[in-house]
Amino acid sequence: MATIIRETEVATGREYLSGLYAPVPDERVAADLPVDGRLPTDLDGIFVQNMPNPAFDPGAGHSWFDGDGMVHSVEIRNGRATYRNRFIETAGLKEDRAAGRATYVGSLALPGLGKRHKNTANTDLIWHGGRLLALWWEGGVPYEISLPSLETVGTFDYAGTLDRGMTSHAKLDPNTGEMYFISWGTKRPYLSVGVATDDGRIARTVDIDLPGPRVQHDMAISGKYVCVFDFPLAVDLREDAPALGFKMTPMPSRIGLLSRADLDAPVRWFEAEPCYMWHVMCAYDDGDDFVLLGVRTHEATDVDAEGKHRGDRPLVDGEHRFDSYLHEWRINTATGAVTERDVDDALAEFPRVNDRYMARRQHVGYLALVDGDAPTLRAKGIARYDLDDYSRQDVLFPEACYGYEPCFAPKMGATDEDEGYILNFVTDSERGTSELWVTDAQHFAQGPVARVKLPRRVPPGFHGRWIEASKYAEKC
Fold first, then answer.
1. Which enzyme class (predicted)?
2. Domain boundaries of the chain, sorted by first residue
3. How far apart are CA 422 and CA 439, in angstroms?
4. How many Cα atoms sit within 13 Å of 452 on the Cβ side?
5. Which is higher by pLDDT, 243 or 2?
């Protein structure tokens, strides 16, 4: 293997390549990890989280979003924990290793400086049709990951039926086995919706007519609808614009609903206040109302519509803003009326629910609490929201410790929505150590029941899943 960037060799002045964010150089396996507290015996499976981890010193215009995909996992079985981490062996990473250096420039680089848009598969993970798939936020062919080894099986194109990129944050309906996803780009069609079935094929693809190219990141499903967005965050198509040259435009937001019963029917668009949303928490039907919950930011970039820099909130990669608040949109599909409101004043990101309740009415949600005083995107704790009255419980991390997305893991035999545990990595930025926290969701405010000591620092990452052992053990 070619030489990998080491923590002591990271160039200074690049906030997402040093300190807390410094990439880890190698792949490890460690069993029988020490635990403060006691691991629940009613958890049997594996927690996996995807994250950016540059294998080589990055080229010009590097963004935190650009790091090579690396999956970190903790498998919990019979009250014991095993840690693993591995790179996702993408085609781009293989090119870099063959050259012995980074052969792609970053997504903030100007045109002409080198190859761009490397599919790093570093954003999300989803289990569908007996496969764990790693997805990339700009949209590409998913990579299949073997469990529990984390070995890369290769690309998975749904038996040749996937004819476009699959953007991260696909939504799986556990009742039907259907997985809905979006594709987006700078050429027509600017947006499309796809439906994958659990037998490993793409059943439908529907093009969505937008006025122009928009930055797309997430979507939602309810029992009745597929929800897509036309937010006023446009792609800058000027020749001298960077690959992530996004700009806010003076237009309202639009929320589009497609009937799941008739995907050929026209999209119904509903206007809302101008904003952007990186991540959806959930959506559900309430009579004639379609209810959407997500973390809304008023402005998504450091540059406003007039080209002025704000510089007053934590940024991701020096350009993109994540100053988000939990927000509710309620759309009456009979009258067309849209009502919306911030439901809390806490800076928050990376929202999650119990995936078993996707497309149904959810009563509980979880979020990472963002540290508004930090220079970069960092979470100082996690929160549990009662989605009936929006009351909140917090679990804060110790001083100098940061974490990210909370993931719900149902207990074995669970029958209630919140009958399970919240799993999340927590890293001590001063000591350079990491833990997996396990918190009982029904006794959330009491904090973690177990803190698994990991054999290495886990850098901040993006999104993760809990997969029950019964789903993958037979393949081992």
1. oxidoreductase
2. 7-475
3. 5
4. 27
5. 243
**Does the annotation place 169 within a ligand binding site?**
yes
Closest CA to 82 of 92, 73, 91: 73
E strand spans, 353-463? 364-370, 379-386, 392-396, 401-403, 407-410, 420-428, 433-440, 448-453
217 annotated binding-site participant: yes
DSSP string of 238-281, one letter each residue:
-TT--TT-EEE-SS-EEEEEEETT-TTSPPEEEEE-S-EEEEEE
Q: pLDDT tens digit string along 165-208?
A: 999 999 999 999 999 999 998 888 899 999 999 999 999 999 99
Give the residue from 427, 421, 400, 436 showing the smallest Cα distance to 84.
436
Strand partners, 75: 46, 82
Q: Are 309 and 302 in contact (CB under 8 A)?
A: yes
By three-state DSSP, how is residue 179 classified? Answer: strand
Task: Return the half-sphere exposure (C-beta side, CA atoms, 13 A cut-off) of residue 410.
Answer: 14
Q: What is the pLDDT of residues 216-264, one digit of tens each?
A: 999 999 999 999 999 987 776 555 555 555 556 668 899 999 999 999 9
**DSSP-derived 3-state class of residue 289:** strand
DSSP 166: B
User: Could you tell me which of 199, 196, 201, 200 has the C-alpha nearest to residue 183?
Assistant: 196
What is d(CA 90, CA 142) in angstroms, rounded to the nearest whole number? 10
Q: Please state the CATH superfamily assignment of the domain spanning residues 7-475 in this structure.
A: TolB, C-terminal domain (2.120.10.30)
327 labeled part of a ligand binding site: no
Write down the pTM of the prediction. Answer: 0.92
Q: CA 300, CA 221: separation in Å to the nearest integer?
A: 23
Element (H, E) at 194: strand 191-197
Contacts of 307 by beta carbon, 8 Å cutoff, 6+ apart? none
309 is in an annotated binding site: no
